[in-house]
Specification:
14 strands; Nucleotidyltransferase, domain 5; about 20% helix; alpha/beta
């Protein structure tokens, strides 16, 4: 399997000599398993004048990144929905599929680091926030009928257990090194396991969703476990109807916060199976 990249193309809190916002492209590699050396991840950055913000400039930057890397990625993830058309066209013109995705842990950390340590040193830096344009998210969807009525349960693993994840028998899935979050091996990582005789088709379906994170939703319409995918889509994974299971949902959310947002979802044919049809290590992040 080839590499996957994460990309952001947006204005930064810096003004040029004409008092126009400076734009920047950030491209970094997505770590795909728990053993990936975080210091070896590919990164590329380049400032863009406000007068040249278009898909042609971005495509050229992507091609420069490919030349620097020595290998083109199999796909590029991006999370800013308001940049969808420009980023998609630039990637398509460069011959690479573009996927809206909130699975952008490394990119998000990099943006936070540059906001704190890089941009303030630039001439023309403007203090304060550099807000993104917030777009409304659609309401959670019902799962396809093939996924409804499956058994499931909350579980926990220690962070240290994921060191061996690349050796697990997993059909579909993705991980990332927990070194990114600097979690101790004893940190409890909460998760959800789904059980179904149709485990493999379910995992295959989920693998096409760009899984972002799971969250407990205690809305007026009813408590539930929601799976966030893509740039803005979400799915009702389970309805939590009893006080006992609702408390488990709240405990899941608390444990997730204590693990710096890290959690997981696994799919097995039955509780006694030693293999996973699907397994994803996830992390909820506060994207800009």
């Amino acid at each position: 399997m080839g590499s996957i990249w994460e990309l952001d193309f947006y204005s930064r809190p810096i003004l040029d000599e004409k008092q126009k916002k400076v734009w920047e492209v950030l491209i970094c590699e997505s770590p795909l398993n728990t053993r990936k050396d975080v210091n070896s991840l590919f990164r590329y950055t380049k400032y863009c004048p406000s007068t040249e913000v278009n898909s042609v400039w971005l495509r050229t930057a992507i091609e420069e990144a490919i030349a620097k890397s020595g290998e083109a990625p199999i796909k590029i993830r991006f999370f800013r929905r308001q940049m969808n058309n420009m980023i998609t066209k630039a990637c398509t013109d460069a011959g690479i599929p573009a996927l809206p995705s909130r699975r952008a842990l490394v990119l998000n950390q990099w943006i936070e680091q540059r906001m704190a340590e890089v941009y303030p040193l630039e001439t023309g830096y403007q203090g304060g926030t550099n807000p993104s344009v917030r777009l409304d998210a659609p309401l959670p969807q019902r799962l396809p009928d093939v996924l409804e009525g499956q058994q499931w349960g909350f579980v926990t693993l220690k962070a240290g257990d994921f060191a061996d994840m690349p050796d697990w028998d997993i059909g579909f899935g993705e991980g990332f090194p927990l070194d990114l979050l600097q979690l101790s091996p004893e940190t409890l990582i909460p998760g959800v396991l789904l059980f179904s005789p149709r485990a493999l088709p379910i995992a295959a379906w989920m693998s096409g969703l760009e899984l972002a994170w799971l969250r407990f939703d205690n809305s007026p319409q009813g408590a539930g476990l929601v799976l966030e995918t893509g740039a803005s889509e979400s799915w009702i994974l389970a309805n939590l109807r009893t006080p006992k299971i609702q408390m488990e949902g709240k405990n899941f959310e608390t444990a997730k916060e204590q693990a710096r947002g890290v959690h997981f979802i696994g799919i097995q044919s039955d509780p006694n199976s030693e293999s996973f049809a699907g397994f994803w290590l996830l992390c909820e992040v506060n994207l800009p």
